[in-house]
Amino acid sequence: MGTIKFYQISDWTEITGERLEITKSAGKITRLHWSKDGSIMTITTGNGYFFGFLTVIPSLCASHDTYAALLSSLTEISVVDCVSNNMVVAKANLDIEPTFLALGSYHFAVGINNSIWYYRWKQPG
Amino acid sequence: MLPVDLVCKRDYFGTIKQVVMNEQWTAILSEGKVALHMIEDQEGNDRRFPQTDSEKPIIYISLVE
Predict the structure, then answer these.
(1) ipTM for the whole complex
(2) CA-to-CA distance for A32 and A22, rounded, in angstroms?
(3) Were both Cys, which of A45, A72, A96, A118 would link to A26 (CB 3.0–4.6 Å)?
(4) Shortest Cα–Cα distance, B49 to chain A (Å)
């Protein structure tokens, strides 16, 4: 029902990889708006839905031994095992959107400003 | 998938510049000063560096296993 297409102004071709299909249950797209800095796009639909899309995703990662930790969603950290095909071995939902991340043998630390939250993702032994 | 638990939540003295961790300890660099404590210690019995006021501010930290 609703599709959003992105075109590059340099040659007016569609960036097909960025196309967004809006779920049928939402109905027709009625309005679309961009934030001034181009980081957020919002739409409203005929069935009363509101969608917000981020074009800039914060990137945060840390590594330790054979593991890597990364920000997999705005308030979620995933720890992956790099020797096991990057399998996600732990996932945690956070109270905040962190600006820094550190990874240790059994813990990871996330924080913002002057606060740090320490999580244990692996049991010693 | 392993279960993840919050083991400690702490507020420090200023904007955090750097965090380093090993198996048991964590050190935090903030405003030229360092706080060192056990990761799972919620109390606040931190070792502080520099140990005297006259020493120069700390700009980088690292921790061995």
Answers:
(1) 0.93
(2) 13
(3) A45
(4) 17
Helix (H, G, I), strand (E, B) or coil at B1: coil
Tokens of A15: 């960036």
> Which residue among A90, A111, A113 sits closest to B2, beta carbon to beta carbon?
A90
- Please give the DSSP secondary-structure letter assigned to residue B2: B
Q: Which residue on chain B is closest to A91 by alpha carbon?
A: B4
Q: Which amino acid is at B40?
A: E
pTM comes to: 0.79
Of A108, A79, A80, A67, give the one whose Cα is nearest residue B23.
A108
pLDDT digits (tens, 9 = 90+) for B6-65: 999 999 989 999 999 999 999 999 999 999 999 998 887 899 999 888 789 999 999 998
Question: Would the CB atoms of B21 and A102 count as touching at under 8 Å?
Answer: yes
Nearest residue in A to B18, CA atom: A100
